[in-house]
Amino acid sequence: xxxxxxxxxxxxxxxxxxxxxxxxxxxxxxxxxxxxxxxxxxxxxxxxxxxxxxxxxxxxxxxxxxxxxxxxxxxxxxxxxxxxxxxxxxxxxxxxxxxxxxxxxxxxxxxxxxxxxxxxxxxxxxxxxxxxxxxxxxxxxxxxxxx
Length: 147
Prior knowledge:
Layout: E1 7-10, E2 18-19, E3 27-30, E4 37-39, E5 44-48, E6 51-54, E7 59-64, H1 67-73, E8 75-77, E9 82-84, E10 93-98, E11 104-106, E12 111-119
Antiparallel strand pairs: 1-6, 2-3, 3-12, 4-11, 5-10, 7-9, 7-12, 8-10
């Protein structure tokens, strides 16, 4: 599998993000907290990670929910996937929301999200008067019905 070298500053006491298995697409990232953060039902908050990265041009990092955290505790990420652009140099922070009916506590070092690094292509618009039709054409928002 191809790899890319990315510069990273880790101001937390946590390990660097890492892949849980050899087939993983995302690296787990962890909370960097001085004290535990309690999330009430439907409450959202911004959790710092202590991580700063320098992505090369042509790449982005996406912050995505962890499925185990979502199913077991009802915690997920808002603004999903969160996009870290190649020119962003600030701390990576994760917007978490508690969708459960019970308060949930985030501790320092908890795996709160996963980060996927991908290539990005930028668009150059070509204004035209007409675009090609398809079988689907303008059909959308459930036009194919329930299966």
